[in-house]
Amino acid sequence: MTLQDVKSLLPLRSRYLFAVIVLLCGLMGYGTYRLIFAAEIEREATRNRQHLETLSLTISATLQKYDELPLVIAQDRRIREALEQPNRAAVLAEANRYLEQINQILGTETIYAMNEHGLTLVSSNWNKPDSYVGDNYAFRPYFADAIGQGVGKFYGIGIASGKPGYYIAYPIRSDRGLLGVITIKIGLVEIQRALAETKSDSIVTNEDGIVILSSAPEYRYKTLRAIEPTAAERIATTRQFSGQSLELMEYKGTSVGNNMTEAVRLFGGNRYLLQSVALGNRGWQIAQVDDTREARNYALASALAAGFGLGFLLISFSSVYYRHRAQLEKREIYADIDAKIAERTIELTSRVADLQRAESVLRQTRDEAVQAGKMAVLGQMAAGITHELSQPLSAIQLYAGNTRKLMEAGRLDMVGENIDNINALVVRAGNILSELKSLYRNDPTTIEPLSLPSVISHALLVMRPFIEKAGVTLDVRVADQRVMGSQGKLEQVFVNLLSNAVDVLRDRTDGRVEISAETLGSEVVVRVRDNGPGIPEAQRKHVFEPFFTTKPSGQGLGLGLAITRFIVDAVGGRIDCVNLPDGGLEFTLTLRNADEVS
Fold it and tell me: What is the enclosing helix (H) or strand (E) of 146?
């Protein structure tokens, strides 16, 4: 190719170069977005699947532990005598009291026995307004299944009580034949509470696609697909969902779809991710809905970084190309006649100015691409840390709640397995936090002068989400005092005190926590008070002892205040608590004044 040929091609290429670069950057950004978004969704799906499988196992274990209880209860002579002698009031009364006592011990909703025709003769709620005694439940599937198949299991809303529950029924037989059916109704409050405490919206559907449990009450008794006529007839006959309209479910105004046949599915214009796993062998499914905003934002940031990067490379190449083109033109000008030197010099000067402006654009584009890359990495790190911590914490909560029930049921083999799982999850969360601490903060264990407002501020970084979620009002009145202590350990002290206050104020609409401090010579006295119920005086002197707690069983180990006192003693301080005259509890924390320490 001759020099003249090159000259003839350059104007044509430069005319379309910018359009080609824009097109290529757009294609690169689009392809990167699709790949990154798909990869993020796959990672999210993998993490969510582990969480759902854990929930599925926990719920299945909760239901299975009641499977054999009706058989044990049915062996008692009082139940058999009540079915054999239904006309003897004394026999029925004794059986009623027995079922009432067993129901209280097991913590179940109701236990009742029906004769062979489905008429309820004795029930644990015999003395309550919604007593089952005298009601006939032969139309319920669990009655017919117990007689025909040896066991009946059924979820439905109670006819008398209006409360949902899970029913397990077994036949009671004698040498003369069928005496009746014993049934136990299990309330699902604990499972419902566990779903409500999960980060994402979770639902449990039955074999007909009807939501029977949900983390949000508004989704309960909605259906994910149109109910088949045979199923609708069965539901109406058995009064399974009495009083419920069973409308199609919408999630935040968006249609979820017709079913959950796909284990992982995007809907709402890829705004939401729906995942499900099987729950036991009943045909039930447990599903979780997550917002894909983080994945979309990260994919968008990555696409922008890729597009800018490609643009930088192409513009750099075009810059080199134009420089080479300018050199060719210069050689031609030098070879031409002297009369055109002045004219060519002016043209070259103009082109140099254009190149300098192009280089300025390149530098700006490069800086923007680098910054976009930094933001993409930061977004990835934040998303990863958030999910890595939320999953072990949620799983720990579920395992811990289930362990107490297993201990009460005597299932020590499963208790040990749960404890091993909890330990593994704690180690995982601890490793994550240790890595963060080593990366972003050097937390010395030596005692040194500290800013009290700084310590409280760092503690509030941890507790503020829980304070806001509980609707508690926080009032901090602390001046610029300095105390002697260890930054990380004193932060833990305030985290523990605030955590206890939030727990007792969670159900109050006027919950309030106050933190104040005053300097008294060589000491700084910090007071943390709330307007909760306080604690009995007989228990107050034990609050700092290990394993002592006033929380309901399964909601606390009683170590928070013991650890708090150990930390305060280690830094040379004191801590005490008193009940306030107008109600509430006040913790008094006395620390050494750093300004008075020589």
Answer: helix 141-149
Q: Residue 592: in which H helix or E strand, if any?
A: strand 585-592
244 with 209: CB under 8 angstroms? no
Contacts of 406 (CB under 8 A, 6+ apart): 61, 65, 412, 414, 415, 418
Write the single-letter amino acid at 154: F
Helix (H, G, I), strand (E, B) or coil at 377: helix
Structure-block tokens of residue 507? 């159900």
Q: What is the pLDDT of residue 176?
A: 84
Q: Torsions phi, psi of 399, nearest 5? A: -60, -40
d(CA 402, CA 414): 10
> In this structure, are strands 473-477 and 512-520 parallel, antiparallel, or unpaired?
parallel
Alpha-carbon torsion 528, 461, 401, 99, what sign? Answer: positive
Instruction: Label residue 25 by pLDDT band (50, 70, 90).
Output: confident
Is the distance from CB of 588 to CB of 577 less than 8 angstroms?
yes
The pLDDT value given to residue 42: 85
User: Distance between CA 298 and CA 379 in Å, rounded?
Assistant: 6
Residue 596, number of CB atoms within 10 A of its CB: 13
Percent of all residues in the chain with a pLDDT value above 70, rounded to a whole number: 85
Return d(Cα 594, Cα 490) in angstroms, integer: 14
CA distance 47 to 39: 13
Q: Is the Cα torsion angle 432, 434, 435, 437 positive or negative in sign? A: positive
Q: Which of 212, 167, 169 is nearest to 187 (CA)?
A: 167
- CA angle centred on 489, ends 422 and 518, rounded to 5°: 135
Q: How confident is the model at residue 552 (pLDDT cuts 50, 70, 90)?
A: low
> Would the pLDDT of 439 be above 50?
no
Phi, psi of 521 (to 5 degrees): 65, -115
User: Using alpha carbons only, what angle is made at residue 546 by residues 543 and 551, rounded to the nearest 5 degrees?
Assistant: 55
Beta bridge partners of 30: none
Global model pTM greater than 0.70: no
Helices (H), 154-239: 189-196, 229-238
**Neighbouring-strand partners of residue 474:** 513
Integer distance in angstroms from the first to the last C-alpha of the chain?
Answer: 88
Q: Evaluate if residue 372 carries a pLDDT over 50.
A: no
Residues 154 and 115 sit within 8 Å (Cβ to Cβ): no
Interval 464-516: pLDDT, tens: 878 888 899 999 999 899 999 988 889 889 988 998 899 888 888 899 999 99
Q: DSSP character for 168?
A: E
Task: Single out the residue of 131, 121, 130, 71 nearest to residue 95, CA to CA.
Answer: 121
| pLDDT tier, 452 (very low <50, low <70, confident <90, very high otherwise) | very high
- Reduced to 3 states (helix: H, G, I; strand: E, B; else coil), residue 35 is helix
Has residue 383 got a pLDDT over 60?
no
- Phi–psi pair at 145, nearest 5 degrees: -65, -40
Strand-pair partners of 214: 203
List, in sequence order, every beta strand (DSSP E) within 90-176. Answer: 110-115, 120-123, 152-157, 164-174
pLDDT of residue 5: 55
Cβ pair 588, 568 in contact under 8 A: no
3-state secondary structure of 573: coil
| CB 564 within 8 Å of CB 496 | yes
